[in-house]
Amino acid sequence: MKKSNVLFIASVLSCVVGITVANVKLKSEYDKKNIASYYKDISIPTFHHIKEMAIPDSAGFSNLEINILASDTFRLQKTFYADIEKNVHFEVSNDTLYISMKKPLTQGYTSINILCNNLQSIEVRHSRIFINKFNATNLQVNTNNVAFLRMQDCEINRLLVQGKNNGSVLITDKCIIDSGFFQMNDKSLLSLSNNVIRYKEFSLGNEATLCLNGAIVKEFTSTH
């Protein structure tokens, strides 16, 4: 074998080994939380409503995951993926944060964080939304198309949930809701698990699905 080829192979192997070692070290540092988040932090104007716009010519999942987090300041935290930078647009107008996409993401599920407070409504069409440890006085949730929304460990005084098409809403562990009003139509799904809802009203379409788990089963009374 020519000396030049040997040197080339050696240099390639050296690069591979170097990258592998670097990745192992990076993972170790991430696990130890010694490396800062890979989210880009962006300040945005105050808003009280979130609305995801329809993706043109698409009725499927966007592959975007949105985490709603409580914060005294209003910020977006998004990754540096090109798909996010080029394809997902955020704009605050008329007290509403609008989320629009040209097409579904192609790199699999990618997440963003929305930090806010005093949220009053969320309307989602294509994405998955996770709300954790969030308090609100009055909150309205709308899931359309194939949207998915999960609430966990939240305290809401008055909650209105509306589901259409194949939208899904999961209210899971440790949620405390004073008054809950649930309107599920088409083939939408509502799942209630291990939470406290002191007053409940349900309106379920013929093809809608209601799932109950845990302690909520014993408390369940329906006006449907």
Rounded mean pLDDT is 81
- Low-confidence segments, ≥5 residues, pLDDT <50? 2-31
Question: What structural class do the secondary elements suggest?
Answer: alpha/beta
Overall strand count:
17
Sheet with most strands: 9 strands, mixed
General form = globular
Please give the radius of gyration in angstroms: 22 Å
- The number of distinct helices, counting runs of at least 4 residues, comes to 3
User: What portion of the residues fall into strands of 2 or more residues?
Assistant: over 45%
* Helix-residue proportion: 10-25%
Query: Distance between the terminal alpha carbons, to the nearest Å?
Result: 81 Å
- Seen as an oligomer or otherwise, the chain set is single chain
The side-by-side strand order for the widest beta sheet comes to: 1-4-7-3-9-11-13-15-17
SSE topology string: HEEEEHEEEEEEEEEEEEEH
Short description:
By secondary structure, the protein is α/β, with parallel strands linked by helices.
Could you explain the architecture of this structure?
There is one protein chain. The protein has three helices and 17 strands. It has helices spanning 3-31, 82-87, 216-219, and strands at 40-43, 49-52, 64-70, 75-78, 88-93, 96-101, 110-116, 121-124, 128-132, 135-143, 148-152, 155-163, 168-171, 176-184, 189-193, 196-204, 209-213. The strands form two sheets. Strands 1-4-7-3-9-11-13-15-17 form a nine-stranded mixed β-sheet, with no helix packed on it. A hairpin with a 2-residue loop joins strand 5 (88-93) and strand 6. The chain is globular. The N and C termini lie far apart (81 Å).
